[in-house]
Write a structure and sequence with these properties.
By secondary structure, the chain is mainly alpha-helical. The protein has a domain of 45 residues. The chain is 16% helix and 0% strand. The protein contains 1 helix and no strands. The chain starts with 26 loop residues before the first helix and ends in a 32-residue tail after the last helix. This is Ribosome biogenesis protein NOP53.
Length: 69
């Protein structure tokens, strides 16, 4: 588990009243990292499928469609 960096607003970016502050971030992502931090979910790396080899599709001609010479 890697600790994410906290997003902090500067004094110039804050509004006059704290009630006007809009929450930022992703709620689902925050919950997911919280579960990983508490070892409820196993922290894993993302598996990439780009390393798999792609095969060409074989083309067959049926006997019924062949032209007789």
């Amino acid at each position: 588990f890697v600790k994410p960096e906290l997003d902090v607003k500067l004094c110039e970016e804050l509004p006059d009243c704290l009630r006007k502050v809009v929450p930022e971030g992703n709620l689902l992502e925050d919950r997911f990292t919280s579960l990983q931090r508490r070892n409820i979910l196993e922290p894993r790396q993302v598996f990439k499928k780009s390393n798999q080899k792609k095969y060409k599709r074989k083309v067959y001609v049926k006997r019924s469609h062949k032209e007789d010479p």
